[in-house]
Each structure stands twice: as C-alpha cells, then as structure tokens.
Design goal:
By secondary structure, this protein is mostly helical. Helix content is about 65%, strand content about 0%. Helix 2 crosses helix 4 (about 55-75), helix 2 (about 25-40) crosses helix 6 (about 95-110) and helix 6 (about 95-110) runs antiparallel to helix 7 (about 115-135).
C-alpha cells in the first residue's frame, strides 16, 4: 500500500497534468501577460484605470506573471490580495467585460487552443469574483446573474 501524497506532491501532480494538457509554461505566461497589458495600455476604457495606479509597469508585469503562474499552474508564486487592490477602483461590469474581451483576444493570439481555454476560464472566474467584491464594497449585493453597474455620472 502506497502512502498518501503530501499537499506539495498533489500540487506538483496537478500542475504536471495541466502542463501536459495545455502546454502552459512560464514563458507562455510571460508572453501572454506582456501582450495583454500592451492591449490594456492602448484601450480607451481601461488604460486610464491602470495608468492612474501604475507608474512603473515592469514590476507590475512581473507580479502579474507570478499571479497567473499561481492561477493557472498552482505554483504558489503569488502572495498578495487582489481583492484589496481592486476594491477602491471606480469600475463596474463594463470594465470587466472589456477586460475579459481583451484577455480573450490576447489568449487566442498567444496561446494554443487548450492553453487559451484554460487561461480564459480562470480569467472569467477572477473577473466575476472581483466584480462581486467591488459591488458588495459599494453596498450592492448582486443576485446570481446580475451585474454591477455604476450610474454613468459616477463611473
């Protein structure tokens, strides 16, 4: 009888399965992150949100590579609180929809189909979670399927 796997061994096994299925590695993550944020910086809706908070993009891009490595490969490299960083932002469903559209576009341009699908599925979960957190932070409790919309004058 074999002994049970440790948490670290289980994580390594899951990561190896993801890599085998999708081909995602650190180089692909970095290409996607850099490509995606290049799109963000050119986007009329999202660029102002990001440039108001990010002065030096290189540390942010490295942090986002750590974040996506943790999200898609379970690497545990990212140590932070994305919700706390996003709560003060003046964003709503429109911003999250645009973020997802740009992410989807970047993933399809950079990644093979299985990897793009894996990234996009994780991105959709992240966007939904952040939108729910921001809406709640603003005193709006959403029901399943509802979206957070700010009044036009307050966006």
């Amino acid at each position: 009888m074999s002994k049970p796997l440790t948490a670290k061994e289980r994580r390594e096994q899951i990561t190896a399965g993801i890599v085998a299925k999708t081909g995602i590695d650190d180089a692909m993550i970095e290409r996607l992150v850099r490509h995606f944020y290049a799109k963000i910086r050119e986007d009329p809706l999202l660029a102002p949100v990001f440039t108001s908070r990010i002065g030096d993009w290189e540390p942010h891009l490295r942090r986002m590579c750590e974040f996506w490595s943790s999200v898609v490969l379970m690497s545990g490299r990212y140590h932070g609180n994305p919700m706390a960083k996003h709560l003060p932002l003046r964003v709503d469903a429109t911003h999250f929809d645009r973020w997802l559209a740009l992410f989807d576009e970047a993933a399809r341009e950079i990644c093979p189909p299985a990897a793009a699908a894996h990234f996009r599925e994780r991105a959709a979960r992240i966007a939904e979670s952040l939108e729910l957190g921001i809406s709640s932070h603003n005193g709006v409790l959403l029901r399943k399927g509802e979206r957070f919309r700010r009044k036009p004058e307050s966006v």
